[in-house]
Design a protein that fits this description.
344 residues; nine-stranded mixed sheet; 11 helices; 16% strand; globular; binds guanosine-5'-diphosphate; binds magnesium ion
Length: 344
Amino acid sequence: MCTVCGCAGDGATISEAHGHDHGHDHAHHHDHGHAHAHAHDHGGAVHTHADGTTHSHAHSQDAHPQDTAPQDTAPQERAGTLDYGQGPARAHAPGLSQARMVEIETNILAKNDGYAGTNRARLDAAGILALNLLSGPGAGKTTLLVETLKALAGRLPAAVIEGDQQTDNDAARIRAVGVPAVQINTGKGCHLDAHMVGHALEKLPLPQGGVLFIENVGNLVCPAAFDLGETARITLISVAEGDDKPLKYPDIFQGAELVLITKADLAPYVDADMAALERNIARVNPKAEILRVSARGEVGLARWLAWLERRRASRLEALAIAAEAKARTLRAAAGLLAAREAHS
Ligand SMILES: Nc1nc2c(ncn2[C@@H]2O[C@H](COP(=O)(O)OP(=O)(O)O)[C@@H](O)[C@H]2O)c(=O)[nH]1
Ligand SMILES: [Mg+2]
């Protein structure tokens, strides 16, 4: 995953929910282990930091002799394929041993999980259904969101966090339909992480009892590894991407509760084999629900909206059950205390 590209959100900036600009970006330092990743990844690569400073690292492998473990980094070879995904890290980076990659990953993900837990607690407290939308670039996430938000207007509260490497185009598209949106620019980063989302949550009017859509950076690989504190993941794949993509990029499909096959209107023009695509999604994730949708001509839009309403209802019900259980525990504790006092 991201130990390969070293991306850990350096240079990320976060915009205001209503697009107000204070004349500068809000840059945040992200303390989740990238110091390690930077010290060892891309020898000589230039890094831009949150404070705008830029510097390059030009470490030779000699400086970190413990990182070189040729037996670890050799790919498995079979029938014309060099497979770099078989070691403990299931990835490869020049000059890094598998053990070091696992250590870096574990550090980054443990810190991320801490922030994700904080986000989750906040979203639980506000009764929010938070959906992490994942896809390759251009699968139609923002277009579907715009159509969805228009349809939901006045029915349930919503807000959006947008993730892209650069520009606030997508947040502007969301704000144009009257829904608050915060844009996160990840700079060289290829995914959102829970720390960035935590900052974005501070800038949003939280849609109490409603839905928070988090549009992740368009990328079928890295975003899969990062828990943002979401309630559920939705993976989108357009009919034009090829029916074998779930097999080629399984991670992004495996964690999804729902897979949306987008741009269904284009299926006849791109020779899409919908049955094969659905079969391949089911092979990597048999539990995922699959819906075909189009933002043109409204194919499947009603079923998608019904899924959203259902999911929001089940989310609120689950939170209510948890709150009742907690209330029972508190009452039992109070009863126990009262009984003890009566005895003493
Ligand atoms: N024909 C068709 N085009 C779509 C559909 N959804 C999105 N697009 C187009 O696909 C391109 C990428 O869409 P966008 O929403 O920006 O994708 P994102 O990168 O996943 O947010 C744009 O040119 C959209 O107009 C759809 O359902 N049908
Ligand atoms: Mg988009």
